[in-house]
Amino acid sequence: MAPFTCRTCMKAWVPDTRTAKLLPLFKQLDTPTMPITNGPSAASPPSTDPAVYDDHHKAFAVSPFPSNPDAWIQRAAQVAAILAEDASVREKENKSPFAEVSLLKSAGLTKVLGPQKYGGGGQGWDVAYKVIREIAKADGSLGQLSRVSPPLVMDFGRRGHGRPK
User: Fold this and answer.
1) Cα–Cα distance measured from residue 128 to residue 48, given in angstroms and rounded to the nearest whole number
2) Cross-referenced Pfam families, in alphabetical order (predicted)?
């Protein structure tokens, strides 16, 4: 039999006598609903441009890093107010949240869990969940993204930030 390549994991396998009867099912399940890319392309869903939040990026760049749980939650409320302005429009247009995640990063919210010695906020999951809840009040999709896929949004201080090798 010819090898079958899964479009999701990109692994090729050759069905044997036991799995050959499952091949039609795998091919049916493997039909792409959206082209696989390594970034935005003409076929990708629309996304917001991070430049829309340039003024906020600049303001957060010069503001002090939150130092206690209340300050982290207050910072999240500030970001939530910014996100609430156009959350319903973004939801209706089904835009990918590239700019919004960029705003979370520039506000420092993605570092809430990282160790302080590596440039993180040094807070626990209790504070991180409160931060996520504040964001979710304004934009439920971003709150859900933060909750179900923290590595996409939250930076745990494991990716550089002065960490020794």
Assistant:
1) 25
2) Acyl-CoA_dh_N
Question: How far is 105 from 100, CA to CA, in rounded Å?
Answer: 9
Tokens of 126: 């209790």
- Sheet strands (E) in the chain: 4-5, 12-13
Domain of 6, in residue numbers? 1-27
* 133 is a domain residue: yes
Buried b (16+ CB within 10 A) or exposed e, 10-40: eeeeeeeeeeeeeeeeeeeeeeeeeeeeeee
69: closest CA among 112, 14, 101, 7? 112
Q: Which of 139, 148, 123 is nearest to 53 (CA)?
A: 139
Contact indicator for 48, 100 with CB cutoff of 8 Å = yes
How far is Cα 127 from Cα 58, in angstroms, rounded to an integer?
A: 25
The band of 157, judged by pLDDT with boundaries at 50, 70 and 90, is very low
State the CB neighbour count (10 A cutoff) for residue 133.
15
Identify the band that residue 148 occupies on the pLDDT scale cut at 50, 70 and 90: low
**Tens digits of residue pLDDT in 9-58:** 556 666 666 666 665 655 555 554 444 444 454 455 567 777 888 899 89
Here the tokens at position 150 are 């923290």
